[in-house]
Amino acid sequence: MADDTRRSVTLQRTSLGRYEVRNARGGTMTIGVGDGTDFTPVELLLAAIGGCTGADVDHITSKRAEPDEFVVHVTGDKVRDESGGNRLVNLSVELRVTFPEGAGGDAARDVLPRAARMSHDRLCTVSRTVELGTPVDTRTAP
What is the reported pLDDT for 83? Predict the structure, then answer.
């Protein structure tokens, strides 16, 4: 793949179950396994789905009016079973967005459902990847 399409992060272990994540732009964050305040990988997946959807919808609607409120709530149920292994089911993204009164707010309200559909159907790389399914090549380095 071309370098301009490649996305990556690197995780460095800081202690048992804690990792520092670094992106190519130099940003860092820590993640953990749920025994502290750090986000877990599952929470980050939910955040990625919500962040991607939210950014898509925000860019489309904010061209018409700045929102008074913009909240994205993402949920999923973690299941463990022999046939499919650990995974999330019942993924749901709920957008709670309000706009001011007036022509701009009316236009933003009108386009909101379409923007949410566009994000779900083709724009959001994260939810599209989850829904379509993509193999993950896991290997150890020599």
Answer: 85
CA torsion through residues 20, 10, 131, 136, sign:
negative
3-state secondary structure the chain: CCCCCCCCEEEEEEECCEEEEEECCCCEEEECCCCCCCECHHHHHHHHHHHHHHHHHHHHHCCCCCCCEEEEEEEEEEECCCCCCCEEEEEEEEEEEECCCCHHHHHHHHHHHHHHHHHHHHHCHHHHHHHHCCCCCCCCCC
Distance CA 47, CA 32 (A): 15
Q: Say how many C-beta atoms besides its own lie within 10 A of residue 34's C-beta.
A: 13
Q: Which residue type sits at 59?
A: H
Residue with tokens 């409120």: 69
What are residue 37's phi and psi, to 5 degrees? -90, -10
* CATH architecture label of 40-132: 2-Layer Sandwich (3.30)
What's the pLDDT tens digit per position in 91-135? 999 999 999 999 999 999 999 999 999 999 999 999 999 999 999
Question: Where do the domains of the chain lie?
Answer: 1-39, 40-132
